[in-house]
């Protein structure tokens, strides 16, 4: 499955992305994410072993340069929900001035709600990851709970914020805001 | 709200980004926030929008939105730089 946007595309994560994604996952900006593979070989094995209930993507600029990753995991077609995760802009310099993150998220939400017909997506974020919490709330996610001391990151425990978005909230709130941000960038480029 | 008050709020929100960015950015009235020369990405821009909306709403005593149709229809994007955003915020107080 490949998805095309105005500024970025989503393409499936491949085993040959192991070195690049390992580098992103071990960078300073990923310090607030869960621990990942310890070597490139482990990362490649992890990519090869992704189950059918997951959609894992690389975010690419229109010139095909990979700039980040994100996933829809735990896709449950019976209960019609899934978890968003592994969202990381690995190349911040490469997306300055571009609505790469917002358009990538819009493409992912489109798969979840429009293609798969899900009614709910959800996720957890480390409580110290304030920029990501603000981001998800701005795009419509509601706080649904908090798991205390759920993550051990950088030598200390952090709570996990539990966030969720229903399909009607996506259509009424998230989609207009995402379109506004993308439209603003389109105007800036014109 | 005066232009100076609005500019202080916007610059404060952009400066807060430096706590979370790998490479700190220099912040001033003409720091490019969006467009081809922008120094931040959309993830960081949203962080600025959220912080500014919250503080301006508190200061004005009414909820304001920086990404509604009115903002999108401005001839000059309010998100060009802190100075432009402060100008736009002042118009919301009218």
Characterization of the model:
The complex is a heterodimer of chains A (190) and B (94). By secondary structure, chain A is of the alpha+beta class. In chain A, 34% of the residues lie in helices and 34% in strands. In chain A, strand 5 (81-89), helix 3 (100-115) and strand 6 (120-126) form a beta-alpha-beta unit. In chain A, helix 1 (18-25) packs across helix 2 and helix 3 (100-115) packs antiparallel against helix 5. The longest helix of chain A is centred in the last third of the chain and has 23 residues, at 167-189. Chain B has a single domain (3-62, 75-92), classed as Orthogonal Bundle (Non-ribosomal Peptide Synthetase Peptidyl Carrier Protein, Chain A), CATH 1.10.1200.10. With 94 residues, chain B is an all-alpha fold. Chain B is 52% helix and 0% strand.
CATH H-tier superfamily of chain B: ACP-like
Order of helices and strands of chain B: HHHH
Give the strand content of chain B. under 5%
- Do you know the CATH topology of chain A? Aminopeptidase
What is the number of strand segments of chain B?
Answer: 0
CATH superfamily of chain A: Gcn5-related N-acetyltransferase (GNAT)
Q: Any idea what the shape of chain A is?
A: globular
Order of helices and strands of chain A: EEHHEEEHEHEEH
Which CATH architecture of chain A is right?
Answer: 3-Layer(aba) Sandwich
Low-confidence stretches of chain B: none
Specify the helix fraction band of chain B. 40-55%
The number of strands of chain A is 8
List keywords for this structure.
heterodimer, A: 190 residues, alpha+beta, Aminopeptidase, eight-stranded mixed β-sheet, 8 strands, globular, B: 94 residues, mainly alpha, 4 helices
Any chance you could write out the topology, listing elements then pairs?
The complex is a heterodimer of chains A (190) and B (94).
Chain A: E1 3-4, E2 8-12, H1 18-25, H2 40-48, E3 55-61, E4 66-76, E5 81-89, H3 100-115, E6 120-126, H4 130-138, E7 142-153, E8 156-166, H5 167-189
Helix pairs in contact in A: 1-2, 3-5
Chain B: H1 3-17, H2 42-60, H3 69-72, H4 82-92
Helix pairs in contact in B: 1-2, 1-4
């Amino acid at each position: 499955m490949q998805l095309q946007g105005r500024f970025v595309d989503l393409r499936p994560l491949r085993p040959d992305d192991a070195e690049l994604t390992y580098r992103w996952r071990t960078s300073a900006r990923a310090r607030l994410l869960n621990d990942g593979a310890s070597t490139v070989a482990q990362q490649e094995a992890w990519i090869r072993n992704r189950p059918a209930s997951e959609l894992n993507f690389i975010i690419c600029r229109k010139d095909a340069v990979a700039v980040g990753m994100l996933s829809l995991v735990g896709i449950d077609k019976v209960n019609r929900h899934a978890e968003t995760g592994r969202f990381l802009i690995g190349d911040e310099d490469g997306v300055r001035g571009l609505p790469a993150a917002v358009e990538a998220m819009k493409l992912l939400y489109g798969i979840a709600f429009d293609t798969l017909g899900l009614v709910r997506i959800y996720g957890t974020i480390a409580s110290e990851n304030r920029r990501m919490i603000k981001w998800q709330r701005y795009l419509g996610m509601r706080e649904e709970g908090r798991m205390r001391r759920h993550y051990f990151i950088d030598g200390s425990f952090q709570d996990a914020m539990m966030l969720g978005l229903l399909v009607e909230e996506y259509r009424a709130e998230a989609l207009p805001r995402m379109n506004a941000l993308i439209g603003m960038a389109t105007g800036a480029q014109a | 709200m005066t232009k100076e008050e609005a500019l202080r709020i916007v610059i404060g929100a952009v400066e807060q980004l430096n706590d979370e960015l790998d490479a700190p950015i220099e912040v001033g009235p003409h720091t490019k926030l969006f467009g081809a020369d922008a120094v931040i990405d959309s993830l960081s821009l949203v962080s600025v929008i959220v912080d500014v909306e919250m503080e301006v709403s508190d200061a004005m005593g009414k909820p304001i939105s920086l990404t509604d149709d009115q903002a999108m229809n401005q001839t000059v994007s309010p998100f060009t730089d802190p100075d432009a955003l402060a100008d736009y915020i002042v118009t919301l107080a009218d």
